[in-house]
## 1
Amino acid sequence: MATALVSQPLFAESSQYNLTRGVTDISNQVYDLHMLIFYICCAIAAVVFGVMFYSIFKHRKSKGAVAANFHESTKVEVVWTVIPVIILILMAIPATKTLVAMEDTSQSEITIKITGSQWKWHYAYFGEDVEFFSLMSTSQQQIDGVEEKGAHYLLEVDNPLVVPINKKIRFLMTSDDVIHSWWVPAFAVKKDTIPGFINEAWTKIDEPGVYRGQCAELCGKAHGFMPIVVQAMAQDDYDVWLTGKKEEMALAKAEAAKALDATLSIEELLTTGEGIYASRCAVCHQANGQGLPGAFPAIAGAEVATSGSIDTHISKIVDGVAGTAMQSFANQLTDKEIAAVITYQRNAWGNNTGDVVQASDINSYKTQEAEPSSKEL
Ligand code: HEC
Ligand SMILES: [Cu+2]
């Protein structure tokens, strides 16, 4: 009977109040399991409350009922222990089956490493040399309520994770800083990403589409601003995307190399820097450079961005500050972008140093760092 109910849910399928079926075999298993357990709970509730209300009504005081006076009925105690145990075991069997299937990452066809960090995702495709960051793309104006909120408010990113359908995809998940959790409800995948650990999960998507999720672990101030967008497409389209992405990455690399020889004007650096600052730094140091006292230092008027040496300033961004939320941006931004954002910080909000930092400065800082310099000898 239970299976009949599950396969033809009374009101479940189309209700906006229920779980959705999702788009993977596992998410369907989870859905069926949820319905099965739900109906078992309903049946238990009907029996328990039925007996209770029947007893209250039948043996009410106005009918002259007199309470029986007994205790320690071994028979009753055995029965009320054994029945729930049997019910629990019956429920554990399908639940364990689904859990085991969720954990089985064997025979996967694609492996993608997912790294969480405050507050963005990084995706790396194994064996493909393709990797990129994925950041929320909702504008600050929408968040501030100055602009009308879009259809995918807080659930949109600049670079979605792109995957093919009908392929078993294994995810290796880890984190650069605190615990995050990669959660896409339509796949029934939700796994913590833990610094120093690698967790595994997998999915195999049945239908092309765009699926959205969020970080599901309270990971700091902008926890609500690191959404996940997955674009699932047919294998052919995926292949085209992958080739395009590789070309795009090669182009960016060539561009970055070219930037090392270029001397950019301060205007150009400031424009680029302002954009980088708004999208990558303002979440902590604030758009006005004032930071948040006690959590994120101000850049406006700070020694590091005014009278301090440029190398110290560069080191903060290239190396980060170990043990704090100030992460290393060495692999997140190109040398040109780092140079631009430093130039911006040294000239915005009254930090009128007039200093100009070029990509080559960043590059020479990095190389200096890589080989212990003669200074140290
Ligand atoms: C996740 C939050 C976060 C983000 C994003 C972030 N920072 Fe920081 N930043 C910090 C924290 C926290 C510190 C203080 C570290 C410490 O204790 O020394 C800091 C320190 C700094 C300092 C040194 C300040 C001082 O007075 O010593 C500079 C410069 C800086 N950040 C620049 C940047 C730039 C440029 C970006 C963007 C590319 C950026 N930060 C993005 C959190 C952040
Ligand atoms: Cu997070």
Note: Residues 339 and 376 are 25 Å apart (CA to CA).
## 2
Amino acid sequence: MKLLKFIACLLMITAGAFGLKAQHSNVKTVDPTEFKALLKADPKGVILDVRRPDEYKEGHMPGALNINWLDPDAFKTEARKLDKGKTIYLYCRSGRRSAEAAGWLASEGYKVVDLRGGWLAWDRCCAIKESGSCSPAGQQAAGSVQTAARAAVIDNIMTRRSIRKYSDKAVPRDVLDTILNCGINAPNGRNQQAYEVKVVCDPESAALLAAEVDGLYKAPVYLFIANRTDYDMSAIDVGLLSENVCLSAWAYGLGTVNLGSPVRSMKEKPELLKKLGFSEGYDLCLAIALGYPEETPAAKPRDAGKVQFIKIAELLPRCSTTR
Ligand SMILES: Cc1cc2nc3c(=O)[nH]c(=O)nc-3n(C[C@H](O)[C@H](O)[C@H](O)COP(=O)(O)O)c2cc1C
């Protein structure tokens, strides 16, 4: 039951975040029933699945091409080969990635129909059924609960971006409390919780800090996190706390950015730093800005070569006991 609630919550949040995105005039965002009707009336349309290849393999619309939006360079190269005379029918898992891809395709001059709610909504509502309209029975036909939960978690991680432009909209206190609770539930060394978090969310204080501290983007909420300096792993605890904050915020359609520059700036202003009120033995380590995004940055590329599979046994001289 808890898992079902979690998934329902994640799906609602994802839909909410998606609603925040700006709409381009060349992009039409439609529900599954309309998507299906438009596709039927446009046999020359190109169906484009922008999910990762492993997601595509698990199930996709018949005839859909697969170009992974999360691999931006390859996406742009492959997508530019598509015929601009044909309408592109886009979908991803939940609608977030396809909304980003739709904006980019439209800016390149493509006419795009974007599936609201993505593959999850399609699978729940229409699948490849001939009746073509959404029904409660159809909704119950969603894939397994665990598969949806796993996909939602991975999607949340893979679509998160650092956000540096925020709207003035206040963050509801109950949402902020949940995010902070996620933060302190991150793993930490020996469960010592060797950190302190100071939250600034009143508009007057936030504006004052944005004006005084270099590199602090204007945001409705700031977190300042200090680590206890007598514990050598405490900065890692801060990083893990921060990641839980960033990911749970993203699941609510909220953006964040981790900030090192303002920490340096605040250390040059001891009077201001003192106002944060950290306990003796704690040192300001990281700041986080948080709020509703007013930008949709593209993914920054990652170097997969940083991860290497190694076999230590092959590199070591054989131990005498194993002969
Ligand atoms: C420890 C740390 C310090 C950072 N400091 C800053 C900063 O001072 N200013 C800034 O704009 N971004 C800062 N960032 C954000 C990174 O630039 C960003 O995470 C990175 O470019 C990858 O982009 P992404 O988060 O959108 O995937 C920081 C991130 C980390 C983890």
Note: Residues 161-162, 164, 215, 257-261, 300 surround flavin mononucleotide (CB under 6 Å).
